[in-house]
From TrEMBL:
Keyword Oxidoreductase found: yes
Assigned keywords, A-Z: Oxidoreductase
Domain (FAD dependent oxidoreductase): residue spans on this chain: 3-391
EC nos: 1.-.-.-
MF-aspect GO terms: oxidoreductase activity
Stored SUPFAM superfamilies: FAD/NAD(P)-binding domain
Protein's name according to its UniProt entry: FAD-dependent oxidoreductase
Secretion signal span: none
Keyword Transmembrane: no
Domain of life from the UniProt record: Bacteria
Amino acid sequence: MQDILVLGAGMVGVSTALALQGRGHRVVLADRRAPGEETSYGNAGVIQAEAAEPYAMPRDLPTLLRYALGGSNDLVWSPAGIAAMAPALWRYFRASSPARHRAVSAVYSQLTAQACTAHAPLIEASGSGNLIAREGLAILHRDPKAFEVAASEARRLQEAYGVPFRAVAGAAWMREEPSLLKAPAGVIHYTGSWSCSDPGGLTKAYAALFESRGGTIAAADAATLRRTSSGWQVAGAEGPVSAQAVVLCLGPWTGQLLKRFGISVPMVLKRGYHAHYQAPQMPRRPFLDAANGIVVAGMRKGLRLSSGAALVAHGAKADPRQLRRAEASVGGLIELGPRIEEPQWSGTRPCLPGMLPMVGPVPRETGLWVNFGHGHQGFTLGPVTADILARALDGELKQDATGSLPHVLSPASQLS
Ligand SMILES: Cc1cc2nc3c(=O)[nH]c(=O)nc-3n(C[C@H](O)[C@H](O)[C@H](O)COP(=O)(O)OP(=O)(O)OC[C@H]3O[C@@H](n4cnc5c(N)ncnc54)[C@H](O)[C@@H]3O)c2cc1C
C-alpha cells in the first residue's frame, strides 16, 4: 500500500482515485475547485462506446480550405490559436495519416469498447442510475447523400470493431423521437452508447463514493507541487499534503504543470461552449446535428447545446459564435425554448497529437505519474484509463521496449 496523491478531480482524476483506492492504496484527491467543475462538468455527457476511432485531423484539401475560410461550424480558429499550437498541430496532422490513424484506432477502439462496462459499477455504487440513459447516440443527417455516406461509414465501424448501429430513415425516426419538429434525411443510431443528464453531477457522485470509501478530498493548487526527500508534496488549504507517488490528472492544464519540471508536452487544446434552453420537450437520447457539429442533449438543467472545437489561444476571450449559428439552425429541428441565463461556459478538450491518452510513469521522475490527454472522450474513458494507471502503478502492466503500456501513450515514448 502506498500513500498516493491524485491531482485534478475531473472525471479522469476521480476515477483514478477510485481505482487506486480499490487496490488498497491510501489516496488523497486534490483540486483547487470542488470535483467535476471544469471540463467534466460542461461536456455533452455521452459515454461514447461508438467512438472506436479517435478524432483525426482532416487532411483533404476541400475540408482544410473550408476550415481555413470559416465555412464550417464544427471547427473555428484564431490566428493566435494556430500560432500557439503550431508544433502540436503539425504532429497531429502527421499522426492523422490513414495508416497511422488505423494503427491508433486499433488500440483506441479497445478502450472505448470497455467504457460502459467500466462506468457501470461506479454508476451503481454511487447511486447515479437516475442520471444515465442507455438509449444510444443519434447522428442526424439533413442531406440524403451525407446520410448514405454515414451509413456506409457505420457499416465499416461495425465490421472493423463491432460497433452496433441502426440506419433509420427520417420519417421513421420522427416516430421514435417525438421532440423533433421535422424529419431529417436519416439517422445513424449508435445503440451501444450511454448518456448522462448531469456530467458534473456524475463526477461529483463518483467523488462522494470515493470519500464514503475512506478517501480524502483536499483543496490544493497543483502549482505548489514539489519533490521532497520521501516523495511529493502540495500545499493544501489545510496544510501540506504529502505522498510517495503523485498522479497528474489535470486535463488541459497538465502540460503547464509538466513544464515546471522541464518536460514539454505539445497539446492541441480544443475549446468548446455550451448553452441551456428551457425546451418544452427533451429528446429521448442525445443527437449530433452532423451539418452543424452541435450535440443536443437533454440535461437536468435544460436542453444543452454543446459546440465543436475552437482552436484559440489559452485565455482568449469567449467567442461562442458556433453556439449562435447552431441556435439558429438547430432551432428548426427541435423547439429550444428560452435560453437559460448563466455566465458563458467554456471548457477545453485536452487532446494529444497522437490521439491516445498519456498514462504511466514520467521517466526520470520517481513517483511522478500522469493520466491525461483524453481529448474528445475523457468523460467516456475516465474509468478505463484509471484502471490501466492503477494496474501499472502496482506493477501488473509491464512497459514494452519502447516504454509503452498497452492501449495508451506512455510518457517514456512521448515526452521530450
Ligand atoms: C463541449 C465539450 C463536449 C464534450 N463532450 C464529451 C462527451 O460527450 N463525451 C466525452 O467522453 N467527452 C466529452 N468531452 C471531453 C471531456 O469533457 C474531457 O475529455 C474530460 O472532461 C477531461 O476530463 P479531465 O478529468 O481530464 O479534465 P477536467 O474535467 O478539466 O479536470 C481537470 C481538473 O484539474 C483541476 N486543476 C487544473 N489546474 C489545477 C491546479 N493548478 N490545481 C489544482 N487543480 C487544478 C481542475 O479544477 C479540474 O477539476 C467534451 C468536451 C467539451 C469541451
